[in-house]
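Dear Dr. L.,

I hope this message finds you well. Following up on our conversation about the binding site, I have prepared a predicted three-dimensional model of the protein together with 6-O-phosphono-beta-D-fructofuranose. For your records, I am including the exact sequence and ligand specification that went into the calculation, followed by the structure tokens. Please feel free to forward this to your student if that is useful.
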Amino acid sequence: MAKKIAMFTGGGDCPGLNPVIRAITRKGLQLGYEIIGVRNGWKGMIDRDTIALDRDAVAGIVHRGGTILGTSRTNPRKIEGAVDKIFRNFKDLGLEALIAIGGDDTLGVAHDLFTKGLNTIGVPKTIDNDLAGTDYTFGFDTAVNIAMEAIDRLHTTAESHQRVLVVEIMGRHAGWIALHAGMAGGADYILVPEFSIDLNEVARTIRKRHETGTTFSIIAVAEGFKIAGKDITSTQELDAFGHVRLGGIGEQVANTLEKITGYETRHVVLGHTQRGGSPTAFDRVLGTRLGLKAVELIHQGQFGKMVALRGTQIVALDIDTVTKPKLVTQSLYDEAKVFFG
Ligand code: F6P
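The resulting structure of the complex is given below.
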């Protein structure tokens, strides 16, 4: 009987998940494994909600955003008896290994269960690009391009109306998307969670810019940027992993800048458009290569590992590497600063 590999996608979706699913399935089938898809993240492992994946099931998905397996932010450690159910279902399904495709939360659980004896492998994903161990996560490049295009578009309307436009960009703990999209799109100031900047300083920079002839400005702000050390949140509710829902920083920055400068200011929230739609070629290839490597590791009998991009190579690291955040460094922010104002 063929050995079985199961996989699921957990946490926020991101463009590039389907290429991973396709690569795991195609490579796994080639090596003689039976491939099982688990629906809706850890929830599907608890409920034993699965589908068989064959070549046809993963045909025509490489270019599609989202995940054909569905996703959830279910945290088994917070549900009575859920971890036991996962172990039982793993055994009853006759699995050789379980591939968790997710961010720090999903892979944190995968690490925990590995230490308890479950054969897990992690594939890191997030549009935020804030996972340690891997140079880039798939989904990030797509999100950056969407945000950059938005900044490009905002330029023409900001210029026509002589306005300041503040664009709120995703990035909970790290400002990678805002930094890259802001640099690529020529934003006049970039605000990221890693660096606390007084908005009076931003106002001074804009004023100087406007006093020397330019009549509009674009400010890119990551949703995790803090005011007076505090997150700006849309609700106080926490998700299963203890995260607040961020939202509102763009509006606050816009209101404050308008008040200080007197310049007419608007804000735009890009929100989930940054996670939707087709992955870029970069994200499709990265997702594909990570998926192939995950299957190779299982074939070699290596578990408790995550796959990662280092330079141009796909490597294997201990799965708990992912639980440390990867933040924007001072030197990168200094490079971006050259273009402020
Ligand atoms: O972690 C990815 C991310 O898109 C963050 O940038 C954002 O804060 C969060 O997910 C939004 O989560 P949700 O889709 O649950 O609102």
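In brief: Residues 140-161 form the longest helix (22 residues).

With kind regards,
A. P.
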